[in-house]
């Protein structure tokens, strides 16, 4: 079955600390992978996407993610977290020719001053 | 360029009432979709459309209808509202070439 797992429901980090949010997927076809961010009361905004090529992708707001096919993972990272990064983060998977995206359940990030 | 717009922002319905959630985009995107977001469940796809006149079911279509008569608009109809449909509803659109979805601000629906 196709699925996306974000094992951490909540993560708390101190401002300036590094961050890694985990995402594992199960998908039959070659996946297209996405990370979205949702601030409270807002819609979702795309942080970055991976279709093919270099497995380390850079996104907006200083985020990056690494695609590891052998581990079926697409973890999101940021070297130094800012208070404004507090939000909920969603990993999603799709594929070429299909628009039926599957979203993970989200990870809520809290940033301590 | 307004992007993806949704109306209303908030709505309270009584069980059994019907209503239509509006979604419009001005980016000439072929693909549009409706999701519902519930705590701890992420976003679940209700219905989607790959172009005017073409719609298909997503993961949780029961109780909802859609139509796509124009490229710009993709309304979601609740036929007979139930408390289980209390949720936040998001509309999204994307170009067929980019697969990047642009989301609207959402509609918070409460069914009592």
Which short descriptors sum up this protein?
heterodimer; A: 113 residues; mainly beta; 6-stranded mixed β-sheet; 4-stranded antiparallel β-sheet; B: 112 residues; 7-stranded mixed β-sheet; globular
In short:
The complex is a heterodimer of chains A (113) and B (112). Chain A is mainly beta and 113 residues long.
Task: Characterize the structure shown.
Chain A is mainly beta. Helix content of chain A is 0%, strand content 57%. In chain A, strands 2, 5, 6, 10, 11 and 12 form a 6-stranded mixed β-sheet that branches. A 4-stranded antiparallel β-sheet of chain A has the order 3-9-8-7, with no helix packed on it. In chain A, a hairpin with a 5-residue loop joins strand 7 and strand 8 (64-68). By secondary structure, chain B is mainly beta. Chain B contains no helices and 11 strands. Chain B has strands at residues 4-7, 10-13, 19-25, 31-38, 42-51, 54-57, 64-66, 76-78, 87-94, 102-103, 107-111. In chain B, strand 4 and strand 5 form a beta hairpin. Chain B is globular. Classes of the chains: A mainly beta (113), B mainly beta (112). Chains A and B meet through strand 5, strand 6, strand 10 and strand 11 of A and strand 4, strand 5, strand 9 and strand 10 of B.
């Amino acid at each position: 079955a196709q699925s996306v797992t974000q094992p951490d429901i909540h993560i708390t980090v101190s401002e300036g600390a590094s961050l890694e949010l985990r995402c594992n997927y199960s998908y039959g076809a070659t996946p297209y992978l996405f990370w979205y961010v949702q601030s409270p009361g807002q819609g979702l905004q795309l942080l970055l996407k991976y279709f093919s090529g270099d497995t380390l992708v850079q996104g907006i707001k200083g985020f990056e993610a690494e695609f590891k096919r052998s581990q079926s993972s697409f973890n999101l990272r940021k070297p130094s977290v800012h208070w404004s990064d507090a939000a909920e983060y969603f990993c999603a998977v799709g594929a070429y020719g299909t628009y039926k995206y599957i979203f993970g359940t989200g990870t809520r990030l809290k940033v301590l001053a | 360029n307004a992007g993806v717009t949704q109306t209303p922002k908030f709505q309270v319905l009584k069980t059994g009432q019907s209503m239509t959630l509006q979604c419009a985009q001005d980016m000439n995107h072929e693909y549009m979709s409706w999701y519902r977001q519930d705590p701890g469940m992420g976003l679940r796809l209700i219905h989607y459309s790959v172009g005017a006149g073409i719609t298909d079911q997503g993961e949780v279509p029961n109780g909802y209808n859609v139509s796509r008569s124009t490229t710009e608009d993709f309304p979601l109809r609740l036929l007979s509202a139930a408390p289980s449909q209390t949720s936040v509803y998001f509309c999204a659109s994307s170009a067929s070439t980019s697969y990047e979805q642009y989301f609207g601000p959402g509609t918070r629906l409460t069914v009592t």
